[in-house]
Structure formats: structure tokens, C-alpha cells
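Cont'd.
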Amino acid sequence: MFSIPVFLESFWPLFWAARYTVLISVLGIALGLVIGTLICAARLSPYRWLHRFAALWVSFLRGVPLLVQLLVFYYALPVIGLDVPALAAAVITVGVCASAYISEIWRGAIAALPKGQAEAAVAIGMTPRDVWARIILPQAFTLSLPALVNELILLVKASSLVSVVGILEITRASQAQAATTFRPLEVYIAAACCYLLLNLCLAALGRYLEHRTAV
Amino acid sequence: MLAASSVEIRKVNKHFGPFHALKDVDLVIEPGKVNCLIGPSGSGKSTLLRCINFLEEYDSGEIRIDGQLIGYEAPGKKMSGRRLREMRRSIGMVFQQFNLWPHMTARENVAEGLIRVRGMSKSEAHERAAEALTKVGLADRMTNHPARLSGGQQQRVAIARAIAMEPRLMLFDEPTSALDPELVGEVLNVMKTLAGEGMTMVVVTHEMGFAAHVADKVAFMEKGELVSVDIPDRILHHPEDARIQSFLRTYHERNNF
């Protein structure tokens, strides 16, 4: 039988574990934004080798499952003599993986802008830097917001994968709890609720940002 | 009276891949004069206009603004970006699709170039932007975003954005072609005012009325060639060239009902 008290009890350890889920997702998306922006810039640059590197980066990281990337990264580093804590390894892998998707989100948004937007700025005599900073990127950001929020939500869910390198985030914590209490159903439903709650908050944040930047 | 530029176009050629878009085009535009470019679509009018501020790179020939070659240091050697930007500062451009920046208000659209290019303080730029918007009759629309303005109002903001930079030459690329018919007049009126102030203007247009009444010279283009340039009356009412006669016949047929 499904026990409501057990269900409610199992939330507390999960909330505590959720700090890792949030930490990995937030740091992951932040890192992904930084690297993704650089990769997108490389992809759009006139230098052929930079362009190729970016294309390779995107196709490799999109083509290999995050779980496999995590395992490779986590077990490859000690081999080359690097002792990276599991949490750092997880954040880096998640961020790097997200960068591939984010750079494509940026590229799509930039390509969607009418050519006349930049032309009007160029005709006035603005520098390429100002054209990007003042005209292209602010509009590309607004255009890509829904896709970026989508990516962040995917990341929150994908962060469950880092349980394989031993980080006690929501999924791993619920597994541990299920094993000790022998009440898997209550615990896993509680875990599902935790993820849902997190992502509903993110979706609301996304709607708020979209509303604020709407023109 | 504004300072006005002259434009000299000599033997300009432009290819898009195998397509020969401009063929040995010659045209001289005197300071303070209004030149209209007319002709069928695809004749190279817009391409020629876009070559004048080097938004489009011409392949050979020369375009000089006040005697200064634009785009090239010397034939075949491109001008530095910095030098090109300096030259563009004194050339205003108005586009068919307005190209206002949707994330800025009308006043911010006008002020942006003053701040970034002319290095004005924000308050100074906003004051100047307000003057320019008042001049085009939009004093009450300054805080509106482009999406909240009609097409005619948007195009007038675009004109204000260009004139706020105090250009000596204005380029208009079919400024009324994207407008609903009832909004064309307000834009043409603003352009007439500018013409009256002695601004050098090059206008690609299908508005034959504007060409007839405001232009000092009308140039007719077809298939990349500049067929003829003359005073409006001789091009529009007494054309000798068969190509111009045929173009005007089509134009009148379409506008008669």
C-alpha cells in the first residue's frame, strides 16, 4: 500500500540532495553559456580552421550520450594523472555538453535576424563590436530565451546522470533511501515531485523573462 | 542650409556571381540636388544606391563622395574599416523595410548612432533625438517601440535616425514601397522638406509623382545599365528612349483604373 506519511517523510533528504541538482544545473548552464557563446563565435568566424573546430565540437558532443561522456571524462582524468573531484568533473561535463546545444541555439537565433538589422547599424558607421553588442546579441538573446529555458530544464533532468560518478543528487539520494527503507514507490514518486517542482519554477522564470524582454 | 555632398560615379561594375548587375554606370550628382533612380525591378537601382555607401562592394570603377574614393584606397586595394566608417558617418540611409531596431524605443533608435558613433553623452543624444523626431512629426511617439508604430511612422523614425547624424548625403532605397498607400504621403512630405533644405539626396523610387515634382534629375536604369539621366520632364513626359517609353506605359497601365 502507498503510505502518505512515508511519502512525505522521504522528501526531506531529497530536498537536501536537490542542492547538488541545482548546483550542477546552474553551474552547468553558466559554463555552457560561456563556452557555447565562444563556440558559436568560432562557428560564425571567417577563419576556416576555427569554423571546422566548432563544427566538430558540436557534432561530437551532440553525438555522444551525456552518460558516456561523464564516464569517459571521470575515468579518463585519473589515467592522465589529474585528480578532479567528482562534482567538478560533473559540472564540467554537463557544461561542455550543454555548450554544444547552446551554440546551436545562438546560431539559429542570429541567423533568424533580418539582415537589415545589422545593415542599418553598419550604414550609420557603427563598429562591428557595437553592431554585435548593441543590435545583434540583445535581439538574439530575446529570440533564444524559450530555447535556453528549455535547455536548462533538460539539464536539470540530465543532472540525474551524474549519480553514476557518486554525487548524492536527487536521483542517487532516492535510490539510497529506497534501498534502506524498502519503500521504493513512495520515495521515487517524491523524487519525481522534486524534479517537477524545480522545473515548474524554471518554466515560470522563463515566462517572466520572456514577458519582460518582449517588444 | 546644410552642408551637402557631391557624388561622382564612374564606370562602376558589379557582379553577383555570373550575373552582371551594374554595367559601366556613370552618374554625377551635384551638391544639394535630388536624384531619383527609376526603372524596372532587377535593373540595378538598389544595387547602385548600396554601392554609394559601400554596403555593396563594387568590382571596378570609382565612386567618389566629395572627391573621396569610397571603399578603396586605390583601385583594387580595400579601404580600412575605420576609414570606411568615417565616410559612412556623413551618409544617411533609409531602407525599404525601415530596419528599425525593435528592442529600442523610437528615441533610442535615433540616439544609438549619436552615442556609439558620434560619442555623445546619453542626455545630449536623447535631446538631439527628440529634435529629429519632432522634425519628422513624431514628438508624441518618442517612447514607443517600433512594433507600436504604423509603417509610415516607422519610416519617419528611420529618417530621423539618419538625419540626426547630420549627414551631407541621404540615400533612400524605395522608402515607400513597403507602405500601405495611405501612409506614403506622410513619408514623401518629410522627404520633400529635406529636399527643400538643400540636402543631396539619391532616391530609388517607384513614386513617379515624387520624381516629377521634387527631383532635379531622374536617372532611368535597365538591366544594369544607366540608360538616361535628365530633368524629370524629359524622362517622365517626353522620353526618347524606347525602353523608358515601354516602362512608363506599363507604369501608367497599372495605375489607371
